[in-house]
Amino acid sequence: MSAQILDGKATAAAIKSDLTARVAALKERGLTPGLGTLLVGDDPGSRWYVNGKHRDCAEVGMESIQRELPDTATQEEIEAVVRELNENPACTGYIVQLPLPKGIDTNRVLELIDPAKDADGLHPMSLGRLVLNETGPLPCTPNGILHLLRHHGVEINGAHVVVVGRGITVGRSIPLLLTRKSENATVTQCHTGTRDLAAQLRQADIIVAAAGVPHIIKPEDVKPGAAVLDVGVSRDENGKIVGDVHPGVAEVASWLSPNPGGVGPMTRAELLVNVVEAAERAVAGQ
Ligand SMILES: Nc1nc(=O)c2c([nH]1)NC[C@@H]1CN(c3ccc(C(=O)N[C@@H](CCC(=O)O)C(=O)O)cc3)C=[N+]21
């Protein structure tokens, strides 16, 4: 038996179709949501992601605002663009594409973003609101994972989720979402300091593999029937994506999110969700 696919492309398409109607409703009330991006440098991968985000915007009827700086840009030059986007009324939400060039104080840049325009859900204010159970933008990849599981009817309530990795964008933030009363999961967070990763993995109903270590999740460590989400993105010598999940896991798990085609497209869709929801909050006067 081979695992059923947690299809990120199809689920993202469903989310985008829902957003298309909500964007049209916002426009009728006089607010056109607009996603801004700031790309510093010309890394081809980063440029590809940013272009994808602008294509997504066009698909749902949103405006997009594109800002670029050379990789020689100074801290001051980057911060000046952030201030401009904060003040630009056409830009209702935006991201600063990461990573920023060496020598730039990334946290100082991110903290300058107007929290009302935080599309990534990773501003300290947004993360604080999440801890406090207040409404606000949610981190995109974790929220995408949640929607992917819900869309396919995978039970989260009462499930034991093992998260592998402690990066800010996924590992460190997804337990905050999963342990809310509305999700009710029990979460174990594993990382490079975990003494016996295999023993933890074998307990898991759901595995979120976000370590960035090729094939760290092996078939013999997965409980039959588990749902496994592959978040890791490494590249082999030919530039092909290698995930954190060994292909043999498909023979043990009941559900598997492929990589590519899983959480990547979901991350992009959730970025649009954050911008549309912020616009809906603004229209409601919240
Ligand atoms: N401020 C900021 N916010 C981000 O959300 C952010 C960022 N910086 N920096 C880089 C990472 C990476 N990221 C991806 C989003 C979508 C795909 C995606 O859609 N991937 C496709 C195709 C992958 C391929 O073939 O290259 C897939 O998984 O199917 C991948 C990677 C967002 N990031």
Automatic annotation (TrEMBL):
Which residues constitute the signal peptide according to the record?
A: none
In its UniProt entry, what is this protein called?
Answer: Bifunctional protein FolD
**Which gene is the coding source of this polypeptide chain?**
folD
Q: Which SUPFAM superfamilies does the UniProt record give?
A: Aminoacid dehydrogenase-like, N-terminal domain, NAD(P)-binding Rossmann-fold domains
Q: Out of the domains of life, which is the source? A: Bacteria
According to UniProt, the reaction catalysed is: (6R)-5,10-methylene-5,6,7,8-tetrahydrofolate + NADP(+) = (6R)-5,10-methenyltetrahydrofolate + NADPH; (6R)-5,10-methenyltetrahydrofolate + H2O = (6R)-10-formyltetrahydrofolate + H(+)
Q: Which organism is it from?
A: Streptomyces tremellae
State the UniProt keywords alphabetically: Amino-acid biosynthesis, Histidine biosynthesis, Hydrolase, Methionine biosynthesis, Multifunctional enzyme, NADP, One-carbon metabolism, Oxidoreductase, Purine biosynthesis
Q: Where is the Tetrahydrofolate dehydrogenase/cyclohydrolase catalytic domain?
A: 6-120
Q: Where do the Tetrahydrofolate dehydrogenase/cyclohydrolase NAD(P)-binding domain residues begin and end?
A: 139-282
- Binding-site residues, NADP(+): 165-167, 233
Which spans are transmembrane here?
Answer: none
Q: Could you give the subunit structure recorded for this chain?
A: Homodimer.
From the UniProt record, give the pathway where this protein acts: One-carbon metabolism; tetrahydrofolate interconversion
Is-annotated flag, keyword NADP? yes
Gene3D superfamilies, A to Z: Leucine Dehydrogenase, chain A, domain 1 (3.40.50.10860), NAD(P)-binding Rossmann-like Domain (3.40.50.720)
EC annotation from Swiss-Prot or TrEMBL: 1.5.1.5, 3.5.4.9
* Function according to Swiss-Prot or TrEMBL: Catalyzes the oxidation of 5,10-methylenetetrahydrofolate to 5,10-methenyltetrahydrofolate and then the hydrolysis of 5,10-methenyltetrahydrofolate to 10-formyltetrahydrofolate.
Family note: Belongs to the tetrahydrofolate dehydrogenase/cyclohydrolase family.
Alphabetical list of InterPro entries matching this protein? Aminoacid_DH-like_N_sf (IPR046346), NAD(P)-bd_dom_sf (IPR036291), THF_DH/CycHdrlase (IPR000672), THF_DH/CycHdrlase_cat_dom (IPR020630), THF_DH/CycHdrlase_NAD-bd_dom (IPR020631)
A single Pfam family it belongs to is THF_DHG_CYH_C
